[in-house]
Amino acid sequence: MHILAPLAVKPEYQRQGIGGMLINAGIEKLREKGSNLVFVLGHKEYYPKYGFIPHAARLGYPAPYPIPEEYSDCWMVQSISPEGFDVGRGKIKCSNELNKPEHWRGEETDR
């Protein structure tokens, strides 16, 4: 399991497909490494275009820190292997760099 973050494209380069290319390249690298699931906390209308399922906590994958209910659909998951959702459920742990409460305030981020 991995978290896809951070992802940002400078405003002057947005809406050119760069974000999608970065997402797809990141997912492909994770597949090559044998990952089963990938998570993201991001824009609820953007990431589902790339296969992410909103409300990961409702699927049994709570975020590392609480996310307010009004932003719960921003915590998303995607299965990237045949085993995918069969690998188990539980609270997600993240790297030290992302394991800080300020990264999990639940405020919806811009694309």
Largest pleated sheet: 3 strands, mixed
Q: Rg, please?
A: 13 Å
Q: How many individual β-strands?
A: 3
Distance between the termini: 23 Å
Helical residues, percent: 10-25%
Brief sketch in words of this structure:
The chain has one helix and three strands.
Describe the structure.
The chain has one helix at residues 18-32; strands at 2-3, 37-41, 75-79. It is low in regular secondary structure. Strands 1-2-3 form a 3-stranded mixed beta sheet, with no helix packed on it. The protein is globular, with a radius of gyration of 13 Å.
What labels would you give this structure?
single chain, 111 residues, little secondary structure, 14% helix, globular
Task: Please give the structural blueprint.
Blueprint: E1 2-3, H1 18-32, E2 37-41, E3 75-79
